[in-house]
Every structure is written in structure tokens, then in C-alpha cells.
Design a protein that fits this description.
CATH architecture of chain B: Orthogonal Bundle
Number of helices of chain B: 17
Oligomer: heterodimer
Number of domains of chain A: 1
Number of strands of chain B: 2
CATH class of chain A: Mainly Alpha
Strand order of the largest sheet of chain B: 1-2
Distance between the termini of chain B: 23 Å
Strand content of chain A: under 5%
Helix content of chain A: over 70%
Largest sheet of chain A: none
Strand content of chain B: under 5%
Order of helices and strands of chain B: HHHHHHHHEHHHHEHHHHH
Largest interface: A-B, 48 and 46 residues
Distance between the termini of chain A: 45 Å
Order of helices and strands of chain A: HHHHHHHHHHHH
Radius of gyration of chain A: 20 Å
Radius of gyration of chain B: 22 Å
Number of helices of chain A: 12
Chain lengths: 316, 388
Amino acid sequence: MLNIYDFINNVLVPAIVYSNIYALASIGLSMTYITTKIPSFAHGDLAAVGAYAAFYLLYFLYGGLWPGSVYLAMPAAAVAGAAAAYLSYVGVFRPLIRRGASITVLMIASFGLHFLIFGVLAILDSIAQTAYGWNTRNFLLAPGEIRIPGLTQSQVTAVTSTIALALILAALYYLLNRTKFGVVMRASIDNAPLAKALGIEVERVYALSWLVIGAVTGISGIYMAMIFPVTEELGWLRLPLIFVAVVVGGLSSIYGGVIGGYIVGFSMVLGFNYVLNPLGLPPEYELAIPFAIVIATLLLAPQGIAGLIAARRART
Amino acid sequence: MMRDTAIKAAALAAILAVVAALAFLSPLPRDVKVLLQNLSIYIAIYAIYVISLNLEVGYLGLPQFGKVMFLIIGAIAVGGIATKVVLLIYQSYLLKSIGAAPLSNIGDYCMLYQYSAGSLVNQQLAQNPALGFGYFLLGVALAMALSAALGVLFAYPAIRLREDYLGILLLVSGEFLRVVTYYATPVACGVNGAVIPDPFAWASGEARTLVFFAITAALLVATFFVFDIVGNSPFGRTLRAIRDAETAAAVFGKDIVKFRIRVLALASAFAGLAGALLAYYFDYTILGAFLPIYTFIGWTMLILGGQGNNVGAIVGAAAYYAIQTLLDIYKNALQALLHADPTYLAYAVFGLAIILVLMYRPQGMVPEKPVKTIDLYTIRKGTVDKNA
């Protein structure tokens, strides 16, 4: 018998939290892809940087997490993510693109960057662990979530992450469509040579958009850290599914990643509850569901859902 | 061109022989020799892996980010299939000794008595080297055939698409295969990991390592020979043409998809061979361990060594292990200095190395050389001369 409370707590709430996490992480990856054409393997590490920045700030300021405090540290996550992303672009990708590197070369460089960020982060964590005795691995940021009497922590996170996603989408929409930077950025994406001819410094626009990418992804790291134990691999372990979300949503659209994130989140939770569980299959097989979806997408509509929508709009 | 490859293969064989002499017969201290033995086997296996990656990446420019999947398939072929064949052969013997047929209840076998069954089978195999060798060949052949088939199958949905889509699909496929096989007990004992009987049980201790090294080295030389011939053939030249100017190659009538499929099949087969060798070497496999990182270790070796030539692939594998071993030797000093596990430092060092090599020496340690294919004119002239 279907119990509405069970449905909300076991299906809807986790599905919304997963979806928001993958949507937030996918926005950044889509932007990376449409600005500089890199499906970056270091993308997940930006989320890990964000989560750790929040963690360290709270520990240095208050010696721990307390209710609601994660939101005090959210700007730190955004700034740290933005800084890491900016440095990746200016220090690694821009010089390579100037040398005419192919997509494959940029992908390898991004994975070198993943190794580098992972290694540096892990060394810092070990040092902090020895120096201060903090447990710097396998913790959750969930204790720092706002507490609302009568609601569980996951229910609160489902609400707060939805608000965060909505605010970020609104801010992005405003930035891209209502500001001069947005016009310049869309021009640089659509036709870089023409934008250059008009005197737009395309590389500077890309550098600024990497700041945005890093900030959004850093914030996604905080929400990842609410439900997934934080290690240096926090984002790296989610990367295959972030890629799935971006491909399913459409590699060439910022908002496609959001649709893709929701498809990944809901298909996994629904599949787990209504397919795997009744059949007695191991829960880890939930990965097979988004995988099947990405294969179907690549075979039938490689431009993704956003691409399909754009094509339909162009026809009418 | 054939002669050129033969000379290089002979040189490789000579180097491997010197390494064997140093690692097994020299008067070096015992622990140094053990280190050298392990290192030389790892390097030889990974060299096969990287040579096959090089055909895809270096020659064709195909972004193979799911390479680890063939290590998984190799491990399944050995630990999941060949092992069960051997268990079937000794079924009645095992039934008598343990009181249970191993294949009647896979769950019980994996959880309760695969270690005792494994050592009993090893005792039997020790008296039957021929069967052991047959079992070795069976695992290797299965690994290569399955890898070739699945390599094409997994890439198929994106084989017509741009390189970025293909790269992403392959990466996700590797993860998918790992998770699904890891949690399926019948494949290779799932989360318990599978015990693999030793095909060379008749040799023990250092002799077994020597036999294993000799076989791995022979397979490495054979792999090098095959891939160098392929790389310098008209086929290899077409691959480079596609890599450098895909549209131009297509205009000249080269079917890009067909070439991708052929390269994937050949390269995947040999990567599967590397996977099978790893499984046999360890006598044990646990499929959950094959994280995407092993794909990228292969890439690191290739980038360091130099893409587009098979010598670079081998040099890269050796260089990677040289750095790794150096960091290992100074492990304690680094630990005291850093207050952190030096493995993390290794990650940072390799990450930085990849970025720096891509920026300042994209050709790697051993740069690609012009193709040595004999042009049609010379070949025709040769046949005319012979006929005359």
C-alpha cells in the first residue's frame, strides 16, 4: 500500500536532493564546455575545493559546525571554487588553447589538473589533521544545515538546495540576458572570431566565466557534502554521473545540465525504489539506469534534450 | 619497414634479457632483486597496456577514457571464466576433498571455501604443467576475444559522434562495467574477490616469477612487433591522416567509423591481454578495485613517454614506475617532511608532470618519427626487379 509520507521521505526528498546536486554541478560543466570546449575531468575537484573551504572556514572560526552555519561559509565555498577555476583556466587551459591544443589534449590536461588538485588538497588535509587533530575526512556538512523543528535534515536540504538552485539559475539568467557582460559572453560563445573582430577580449570573457563556473560548482560541493561523506574525491566520484547529466541535457546548453541533473536524480531514486528493490538487486546497480539513458540519448538524440527543444523552436 | 621493426623488437628482447639477468641471476642483495623482479613484471604488463592505448590515442586520436574496462574484462576472463573451467575439470577431486562441488553453489564457494579449493587446485596443477599452460592460454585467449568484442560494443553508441562524446561515453562505460560486475557474485565472486589458480604452480618461489617474467616479456615483444608493423603499414598511415585531418581523410574516401572500429578491436584485445596477465600475476582479482584511475595511469605513461610511437609507450611505462619507486624509497623521509602520505604527493607530482609535458614538451620523452611505410613506387619497382 502506498503511504504518502513514506513516498515523500523515501522517494521524493532524496530524488530532489540528488537532482539538485547533479543540476548544480552540471551547470558549471556545461559552461566549461560551451565557453572553452573542455569536458573537464577536474570539474568535480572544484566541488571538493568548495566543500573543504567551507569546512576549514567553520573550523577556524568556530571550531566546528553548528546549525545553519554552512550558509555562513557558502561565500567561502564560492570564492575558493572560483579561485581554483580561474587559476585552472589562466594557468593551464589558456596557455594550451593558445598553442592550438585539441579537445583530447585539453581533456588530458584537465585530468592532470585533477591529480594536482586532489594531491594538494589531500596533503593539506593530512597536515591539518596532524596539526589540529581535526577529522578532515569522511565527515558530512549536514550538521551545519539549518534546523527547522518538525522537519528532518534531508527534508530541509531538499528545500534549501532547491532554493539555491533557483537563485543561481535566476542570477545566471540575469547575468547572461540582462547585463552587458552577458551579451559579450554570449557573443564570444556564439562566434568567437566575430566577437574578437568587434573588439571583445574573448579570453578575458572566458576567464570571467570560469570565475562563475567555479563559484557555482563550489556551492554544489556544499550540497554534495550534505549527503556524501567528504573526502578529496567528493566531486571526482560524482563525475561520471555529472557527465551523464550534461550529455543527456545537452552539451551545448547551460540549462540543459539542470534538466539532465533532474533526469539522473529522479531515474536513480525511482529505479532504486521501484525496480531494483522489488527485484532484490544490489542498490549499487542504480548506476545502470542513468547509463542506459545516456546510451539511448547518444543513439537517438546526441544533441541532448536542450538540443531537441532548440531544434523544435527553430522549426516553428 | 619490416626490418626496422624486427631490429627494434630484437633490441627490446635484448634489453628484457639483460633486465632478467639483473633481477634474477645477479649477485645484488635479495630485496633489491625482489623489487626489480616486481618492477620489471609490472612495467612489461603496463607496457602492453600502453602500447595498445597508443594505437588508439597516439595514432588515431581516439579519446579512450575507458581503458580500465579491458583490465576488468581480462580479470573476468581469467578469474570468472578460466578459473571455473579448471574448477570443473577438478570437480570430482574437489568433491572428494572438500565435500562440495564448487560450482553447485557459487555464493557458498566464494564466501566459504574458494581459498581452500584454490590451494587444492594449485597442488593438482603443480603436477600437470601442460594443463596449467592450457589454462593460461585459455584465459588469455578469452580475455583478448571478449575485450575486442566488448570494446567495439561499448563504444558503438558514440562511434559516429565527435571525440568528446566518445570519450565521455567510454569513461562512463568503464565505471558502469566495474560497478555491475563487482556486485554480481557469479561473475568473479563479486565483493569477495576471486582466487585464481596459479597456471605455473609447478614452479615455485623465484622460479615461478622468472617463468612469469619470461612469458610476459615474450608477449610484450610480440605486442610491440604487431603494433609497430600495424603502425607503420598503410593502415597506420591512414590512422595518422585521420588524426591530423579527419575531414581531409574522409574526403579521400577513408571511412572513419570503420577505422575506429578496427582500432578499438585490436587495441582492446591487447589491453585485455594485459588485464589477464595482471590477474594471473596476482593469483587474485577484485573487480571493484578497477577505478577510472587505472585508465589515467595508462594515459600518464603515454603522455610522459611520447604519443604516436611504440618505443615511447614502453619508455613511459618505465619512467612512471621509476618515479613511483623513487617516491616509495624516500617514503619515510617525505612522510616526516610533509606530515602527509607521500602517495598524495605522487598524485600531485604526476598531475603537474602531465600539465608541464603537455605545455613544454607535447611530444613526450620519445618524439614521434615520420612513418616508415615504403611508398607504392618502390614496392612496384621491387616486384618489377624481381620479375625481371
